[in-house]
Amino acid sequence: MQLQHLRQERRVVRRPRPGRRGLHLVHDREPAGRGPHHRRALHARAPLHAQRSVQVRVTGVARGPALGVLEIATIARGVVVADAALKRAPAVLLSSRAVSAGKHLVLLEGGVAEVEEAMAAGARTAGDLLLDRVTLPAADDQVWPMLGAPVAPPDWAGDHGAEAVAILETRTVCAAIAAADAACKAADVTVRDVRFAVDLAGKAYFTLTGTLDAIEASADAARHAAADRLVGAELIAQPAPELRGRLFR
How many other β-carbons are positioned within 10 Å of the β-carbon of residue 30? Predict the structure, then answer.
């Protein structure tokens, strides 16, 4: 297929001529059979693209919108899972790494269909070694920075809106991500500390701050999302001055 320069708005498909393979596309305007075109009207409009060329694919810097995470029981199988997922669909590999307790995490992002298809292929490859999985079609904005855990937040001692704190602990990393996404979507809260399966025997935790009402609502949503993978969920209405701004010292 040949693409000529984009001069105008209409493309004409012509049959192949001898020595030319495939379709021949001419991006131009031709008479429509209703009489002659005025000379000035023929090239009056600007090109469809400023660079006078066809953009095959447009990519941006925004993440997602979909996020998928696979948690595998062994490191060896985890690498194979990542390979199978990426060969199945054009999702973007965010990370493929070993974590505590000999587990392996595969993190994918991209369009919803691509991530779902890659996740399905990865889950099939993991088989009975799949510990957990989570797919978020539209992950909350605060979830993306969590993926670089461990995260030690800036000192929030002077944040007057942080009147209450929630500490959520889960058995798996996938459960923590699902719980955090649900919590952030349920109320106006801020994710603070994050730690995923590093020196935690494979567990994960994160903390939230906000008003008491917001923390209560977000904690309820997190509990529901984590379900039986929840280890603990604790709330502090007014943290002690020594803990404000830095819960883990």
Answer: 11
What's the pTM?
Answer: 0.74
Q: Which domains does the chain have, with CATH numbers?
A: 66-139 (3.30.70.1710), 147-243 (3.30.70.1710)
pLDDT tens for the chain, 249 residues: list them: 444 444 444 444 444 555 544 444 444 444 445 454 444 443 333 333 333 333 333 334 456 699 999 999 999 999 999 999 999 999 999 999 999 999 999 999 999 999 999 999 999 999 999 999 999 999 999 999 999 888 888 888 888 889 999 999 999 999 999 999 999 999 999 999 999 998 899 999 999 999 999 999 999 999 999 999 999 999 999 999 888 888 887
CA distance 30 to 166: 67
Question: Which contacts qualify for 218-221: CB closer than 8 Å, 24 or more apart?
Answer: 218/166, 218/182, 218/183, 218/184, 218/186, 218/187, 218/189, 219/166, 219/168, 219/183, 220/186, 221/179, 221/182, 221/183, 221/185, 221/186, 221/187
The b/e string for 60-78 (b: 16+ C-beta within 10 A; e otherwise) is: eeebbebbbbbbbbbeebb
d(CA 68, CA 127): 17
Q: What is the CB neighbour count within 10 angstroms for residue 109?
A: 23
